[in-house]
């Protein structure tokens, strides 16, 4: 896993998210041959276009797990919307079994933050700032 700091002119950041989302009605869309591979291709292309680093991605029968790294200017609802939007239309267009669904993904998702240091390390760093010089 790569834990590299992202840099812009004015920021240095390390913002990692664990995302989980599923298809409407928890349908087992990834059991359909080719859907998982195509989903990963579309997601990788969309994330590259939007400067989102995929640290890990895995599809199960009825849900997706992603571990991503983003810039601080990118909000998590926008990131999820970009990924779901880019994949929904294309997958329903390319796979006839999915074409009958009015929308591919549910509106809900799970997100959790994750970083490379623990809360204790951050607390120690902050509490020792005045004693370092």
Would you mind describing this structure in some detail?
The chain is an alpha+beta fold and 133 residues long. It has one domain (6-127): Transposase IS200-like (Alpha-Beta Plaits, 2-Layer Sandwich), CATH 3.30.70. It is built from four helices and six strands, in the order E-E-E-H-E-E-H-H-E-H. The protein has helices spanning 35-49, 76-94, 96-99, 119-127; strands at 6-7, 12-13, 15-21, 53-60, 63-70, 110-114. The strands form two sheets. Strands 4-5-3-6 form a four-stranded antiparallel beta sheet, covered by helices on one side. A hairpin with a 4-residue loop joins strand 1 (6-7) and strand 2 (12-13). The two termini are 34 Å apart. The relative contact order is 0.23.
Question: How would you briefly describe this protein structure?
Answer:
With 133 residues, the chain is an alpha+beta fold. The protein has helices spanning 35-49, 76-94, 96-99, 119-127, and strands at 6-7, 12-13, 15-21, 53-60, 63-70, 110-114.
Topology:
Layout: E1 6-7, E2 12-13, E3 15-21, H1 35-49, E4 53-60, E5 63-70, H2 76-94, H3 96-99, E6 110-114, H4 119-127
Antiparallel strand pairs: 1-2, 3-5, 3-6, 4-5
Keywords:
elongated; alpha+beta; 133 residues; Alpha-Beta Plaits; 4-stranded antiparallel beta sheet; single chain; two-stranded antiparallel ribbon
Helix content: 25-40%
Strand order of the largest sheet: 4-5-3-6
The CATH C-level class name = Alpha Beta
Mean pLDDT: 88
Q: Could you name the ranges where pLDDT drops below 50 across 5 or more consecutive residues?
A: none
Form type:
elongated
**Could you name the CATH topology?**
Alpha-Beta Plaits
Give me the Rg, rounded: 18 Å
Q: Mind telling me which CATH architecture this is?
A: 2-Layer Sandwich
Distance N to C terminus:
34 Å
Helix and strand content put the structural class at: alpha+beta
Percent of sequence in beta strands:
15-25%
List the secondary-structure elements in sequence, H or E: EEEHEEHHEH
**Whole-number tally of structural domains:** 1
Helices, by number, come to: 4
Within CATH, the superfamily carries the name: Transposase IS200-like
